[in-house]
């Protein structure tokens, strides 16, 4: 006798658990995928042994609870779509409902997959800053995408579209084959698991707030309260949904200024015309040496002999350093190109917003570059760059009327040899006129590709995986050698330019400046690359001046890239422009105690820092955390002193807050920047 089919569910509870089944399946699959990815992708919270067992459980439950919320929202949308199909039967409503299902599901799955892919490559999930950054640099970003990444994206898109279509067609039939008793039991299990995750999430929020334990950051020997550490792990590495949600609600920012024994005056400076800025200068009798500035991307100062290198990585820059003045304690103004490349020439700190700043087109605030001043003084001016100036929309900011000729690629980068070729050709065509030539070389930017056939002096072909921000720790020597190869190649091209100037008879009448935009990290503090946290490995850069008026020697005074433009003008005999925020390094009244400010605003870090008298304080805006180091005794920044030297940390924190707020107030007030230049802080 055949077994009769079980009766359809009759009670409200039975119908509810019966209806939960298809969405429960989706939640279980998504949750399982999250658990697998968390286990197999390095850097997630489950890999951090400092996270207690109870926190591991509650952090995982938090992400799964949000997945349940997304699935519940999908259930609500599905109910609305089914109601629409019932009210308006026909092909049109079915196609429309399918289009909505495919769009929503595909959008969610693609975003989820992209977020995990980004985390695997960079250690960061997608958030509003990432989206803004990618959209703003979409043309340049596409040139970084390789064939493998395109293939993975194509597979993900195909799956994201195929799954909702297949489920719409065959899903109801498959569900109909599942006995109601099993569907009901499965629904109860899913609801129980979701309820457990929600309770665990609430418990985690309550427990971490009461925790009194501390967690040690072994890179800098800093002790964090477990409550703050829990929030950091939750917000950044527990899962893509939690990260996206918390990125939208985190406030971040400076603590209240409070009282301080220090005094600082914010000096406001009115706009002037170029004629007013050069008033009193006899341009006809002015000695006008040529100026050549070579800016090579991502050069750490310790890869030059004068910076402590034990091998000849950049012999041409080392030769310039021996002939000229090398500032061995020079730092960049930022850790990323879109901020750090222009700032030496505008002599303006790149703190303009609380968020990532993309230069407006046209810029609404004033900017005066070195080439603007020198063109007004009778110079020919040119920029020859291997870099795509569309990055961060730098071209809108940098390309002023003061630069006559711009020689740059219309792709991410070009071979530095081509850039130097164009620079030499331009110099050959300027005749006897004084000139300013800025040359930007890009080979040392990751992934450090040198031309095929060029003999590597240090490294060998890579046989391991890496990303922009990570590589196997046991491969550090190999990675450094590949980086050194790229430095050597750009140095070789710079040497060709120097030789051409000598052959043209312009060398002895030329001020040569050699520098970089920022440094490069090699896991000293747990990350690689740049565009990240404000540690010295990302900030210390070479800064060398050679030529007429430059007394050779090694200079240990604290210098910064915002000093480049006023220093060049000083060597020529021109006054610093009133818009500049940097110092003339060659002036006799250089301050005895100099304060330096730096900034990082990327998808990897939102930080600002201050260094004064050898003490450096780094403020993380997202983590709401201050770290302080004594660079005189701890140049590697391995021991945080913010707790043991609290008074000094408070003083530096106060000074940093004053500077940051002065910058933000200025750039957020159109009435001011229509009448004034960015302010300077006069400390007392």
Structure characterization notes:
The protein has 684 residues and is an alpha/beta fold. The protein has two domains: 12-249, no CATH class; 264-683, Alkaline Phosphatase, subunit A, CATH 3.40.720. Helices cover 45% and strands 14% of the residues. The chain is built from 21 helices and 20 strands. The protein has an eight-stranded mixed beta sheet with strand order 8-7-9-4-10-13-5-14, sandwiched between helices. A four-stranded antiparallel beta sheet has the order 16-17-18-19, with helices on one face. Strand 11 (521-522) and strand 12 (528-529) form a beta hairpin. Helix 3 (91-122) packs across helix 6, helix 7 crosses helix 8 (226-237) and helix 8 packs across helix 9. The model is unreliable at 1-7 (pLDDT under 50).
Q: Which short descriptors sum up this protein?
A:
single chain, about 675 residues, alpha/beta, Alkaline Phosphatase, subunit A, four-stranded antiparallel β-sheet, 21 helices, disordered N terminus
For the biggest sheet, the summary is: 8 strands, mixed
CATH class of the largest domain: Alpha Beta
Low-confidence stretches: 1-7
CATH superfamily of the largest domain: Alkaline Phosphatase, subunit A
Number of strands: 20
Radius of gyration over alpha carbons?
Answer: 29 Å
